[in-house]
Amino acid sequence: MRLKDKVAIVTGAGAGIGRGIAERFAAEGAAVVLAEVDPSTGESAARAIQGGGGKALFIATDVSSETQVQAMVEKTLSRYGKIDVLCNNAAVLFFREETRAHELKNEIWERTLAVNLRGYWLTSKYVIPSMLRQKSGSIIFVASPTGIFGFTNLTAYSTSKGGVLGLMRAMAVDYAPEHIRVNAIIPGTIDTPMNAVELSDPAMRSRYAEIAPARRLGTPQDLGGVAVFLASEDSDYCVGGIFTVDGGLTAV
Ligand SMILES: NC(=O)c1ccc[n+]([C@@H]2O[C@H](COP(=O)([O-])OP(=O)(O)OC[C@H]3O[C@@H](n4cnc5c(N)ncnc54)[C@H](O)[C@@H]3O)[C@@H](O)[C@H]2O)c1
What we know:
Radius of gyration: 17 Å
Mean pLDDT: 98
Number of strands: 7
Number of domains: 1
CATH architecture: 3-Layer(aba) Sandwich
Bound molecules: nicotinamide-adenine-dinucleotide
Number of helices: 8
CATH topology: Rossmann fold
Oligomer: single chain
CATH class: Alpha Beta
Shape: globular
Largest sheet: 7 strands, parallel
Strand content: 15-25%
Distance between the termini: 35 Å
Structural class: alpha/beta
């Protein structure tokens, strides 16, 4: 068990990649807080972990809400007394409403940035003081290839993911002297509810699979190994790193 006695918060842990990471953290012995906006998926993910003998606590949280984030961190500290790991994962992608910049509705821009970027900052803002007190911690940002490369008709989402990498690097250099390490994971195309509409078309599905040199889509479980590595002391000297888990997508 590589995360025994650790306390980890995973945002957006009710589904997809967040759920996969939360399950893996729990399997490695961590007590996991599932900070999820959807109570039905958050509850059932927590119950599944508990049913398998793991420690899990669901706290209904919209990461774009400062008061909800603050309350979630307070509840975590009053239940477990510390926070060792924060995995910032919760994000939204409004596929159908995403457009080129001049066509984009203000509310799509604002909601996307509020969850995907402000949410990562807010959770960090309220978790970091407890990490500073214990002089250790690991913060993991789930980023995206869209934060590095240009993708058509993905204005707000790409901007948020570019911002996530900027925030990750700024925090990495600010907190490394205090033994808080901050790193990012870049997934490739992962089969999750976020992509469900796109991947429900068989032609699109095989196209996405073929683009990656590994010739398959990723699964939420594929992210678990790197997430555990970054959460554990094995990554003690990893600061501001970007770890791709993409079947080679960004290597070509
Ligand atoms: N799936 C992919 O192919 C892919 C690729 C690259 C990066 N990513 C990134 O991986 C992360 C997870 O993506 P996914 O595919 O698992 O997404 P998903 O939509 O399948 O799951 C996201 C989860 O976050 C929750 N969530 C949404 N808004 C929230 C909020 N305001 N507060 C709290 N929880 C909220 C959702 O309810 C859901 O449970 C995201 O940061 C995404 O940008 C995904």
